[in-house]
Amino acid sequence: MLDLSGTWHLSDETGQHTAPMALPGDGISALRDAGVIPDPYWGQNEYDLRWIAERDWLLTRTFRVTDRKMVLVLSMLDTVVDVSLNGQAVLHADSMFRTYRVDVSDALVSGENVITLHFRSAPREARRRAEAQPFPVPFQAENCPIPHGNMLRKPECDFGWDWNIALAPFGLYGDIWLEPAGPRIADIIIAQKHEAGRVEVRVTARTEGIKDGTQIEVSLCGVTASATIQQSEATATLRIDQPHIWWPAGQGPQILHDLKVSAKNVHATRRIGLRDVQLVTAQDATGTGFALHINGRPVFMKGANWIPAGALGSAITPEVCRDLLQSAVDANMNMIRVWGGGRYEPDWFYDLCDEMGLLVWHDFMFACHLYPATDDFLTAVQMEVTEQVARLNHHACIALWCGDNELLGALNWYEESRKDRDRYLVAYDRLNRTIETALKAAAPDAVWWPSSPSPGPMSFSGDWHDDRSGDMHFWSVWHEGRDFDHYRDITPRFCSEFGFQSYPSMDVIRRFADPADFNIAAPVMESHQKNTGGNARIAETMFRYFRFPVGFENFVYLSQVQQALAIKTAVTHWRGLKPHCMGTLYWQLNDTWPVCSWSSLDHGGGWKLLHHVARRFYADVIVAAVPTAQGTELRVINDLPSATTVRVKAFAVSTAGHSRALDTANVSAPPDAAVAVAMIATDAIGDDEILMFDWSVEDGRTRTEHFAPRPYKAYALEPAGITTDTSWQDDAWVITLTADRLALFVAIEADQPGRFSDNAFDIIPGRRVTIRFTPAQTETQPTFTIRDLHSATYDT
After folding, report:
1. How many other β-carbons are positioned within 10 Å of the β-carbon of residue 3?
2. Distance between CA atoms of 70 and 62, rounded to whole angstroms?
């Protein structure tokens, strides 16, 4: 194999702009790194850099070969690209979601060769294709300032989104190499049938260039089987007794095995986990359930939505994604949803999910727009789906394939489709059936869900808030400005999207703005808020729940507090409904660039306050406070596969810090269940008191939470009088905090990168709280800034 990655020469169609460019990578990063353009993320630079996407760009390099019988392999090529060798055209690519394999034997010469990648302007090509459609195909113009992204098989969010920069980047983010032409094992399809004490693994190998009648040998876990290739395909079945099973995070170990397939001198391997995944949609008194059963066990899905790890492909590396995914696991998540407006990730991404025990709900890459229904578009979709499913089907993490994101709702968003619903519904059905048919042909046992949100197969309802069946996207609290309590008005079977925005942390804001711009109405801040009315909605919500913050930095802090409070309200309530509700995936885990958004992780991987709170509300055993007409019910939620004993102590704490006991209870929480443990009457809590509750689990874990019966602005908080003691212990700074009066939502910030063991916690007088800060690189003592609800909202 001859690897063609490395340094290439980049130039635009006019020859005016040139730069070295590394592959894998993207052209905008190359221009930035060469000093040709400024940082796209700084200030309002984005708007002055959209000219880049309106031009064609050329990448060239030379290389030497001695063997001319070679195949050129390219993956994640973005997007409409003409490839030539020595001036001879060898490929016209037009999908980032395909891998291209081209026999270039006739174009190569012995010795020095020149390869050219001619990247066509994505906006120009999208515009041309839109004009060629037999009828208009609308797109989300509010989200996408660069139009017609639905015409190209390229990440939709590259054209802009309500959290993403709009630059329509170009480049190559996967592989580019030459390999000898010859036989190979192209795809390996895995199907598993689990029984008590045994698993049957069916392995289908799809081959190229290997003669029919050739024997293949398959080995796994010390078991070997063989089969004969017929019509370029062979299937062997292995029976493994007492298998070592793979489990998602929090449910058991992530055991992986090497599967080997050989045919004469051709070999291929896959790393697989032995596990069974079933989507159970059984009828019940309410409607139809939606629960994932893993190895026969119903498991509540706890997680978030995944978007691309960077707006520019050069920034997306295994190291970056490992850190983000590890943060998901550290917050007790067991699932991510790869959202349909992004991309299919490289192989190493799914390897990481396998290793970490993160199940993947995987959308196919269609989101929010309407799409062409022409034969050529659907043929390209069929090839895309076939390839991606064949590439990824063996991964233990892949739990569910979903047809699209919000396309059923989109049928009602556009004037064209509202006026002629039949035409656009038929177009959607053609697309959806193409995806399903290709999925089932590639991997017949794959778990399929037609759309998200959806009531289920063969239902084209656009009613997102029908909580009787299917999965739900619930956006009324954010987009309609409803109270957080509105989360408790619905009872979803599975909520796969819901969210509330916050500002990024101050260290991130300083990466794109000067202090002179530290104002939510400043043009720079508004340019880093892509959701129309988002800043106003954040501020309006603060008025509803809190006294308004003092200064910009406290505004940022309080925006993250209320984001955490919103998502905690939803998750704790819906987890308390199990088994009626069996999953919550909040929007969203990560950011593509520094921006105001719904993420719990900042751009760069830092933890917002929401992520710290998520670690607590996604723990496998929690106690949740649920307001009712009679008072506040304390409910124990147990996600463990076995019963556990939980001891709960409820007490009231005044703003001055005086504690008063209310109730104590022990409960044996059944496995995979939610049970009521105590009811605190409304009149048991004084006007100046907040309900606090401690709980301990039989394994020794303890935690304290609070519930405020009234909006926080109604409480006359007093200065908390927080004191700290800091020391260096075992590679971390240990901070011990005490308070003279009740301190709510205490947050610590550091002036250097690192991670806190906890944040957004409470301090009760007479109790110490100990926090560890693990610095990223240095042992130099950081300067810590401490905020709490009083200090942030009282001008002292």
Report:
1. 12
2. 16
The answer, yes or no, to whether the previous bond of 453 is cis (omega within 30 of 0) is yes
As a whole-number percent, the residues of the chain with pLDDT over 70 amount to 100
CB 260 within 8 A of CB 269: yes
C-alpha closest to that of 5 among 104, 108, 77: 77
Rounded Cα–Cα distance for residues 363 and 60 (Å) = 35
Residue 464 — pLDDT band, cuts 50, 70, 90? confident
Residue entry with tokens 């970490």: 356
Q: In Å, how far from its chain's centre is CA 681?
A: 40
Contact between 303 and 337 under an 8 Å Cβ cutoff? The reply is: yes
Name the one residue in this structure whose structure tokens are 């935690």.
Answer: 703
pTM over 0.85: yes
* Amino acid in the structure at residue 638: N
For the beta carbon of residue 21, count every other beta carbon within 10 angstroms: 25
Distance of CA 405 to the CA centre of its chain: 13
d(CA 792, CA 554): 5
What is the full DSSP assignment across 136-172?
-----TTT-SS--GGGSBS-GGGG-BTTB------EE
DSSP string covering 436-481, please? HHHHHHH-TT--EE-SBSBSSTT-----TT-TTBSBEE--HHHHT-
CA distances from 482 to 141, 273, 478, 540 (A): 25, 43, 7, 11
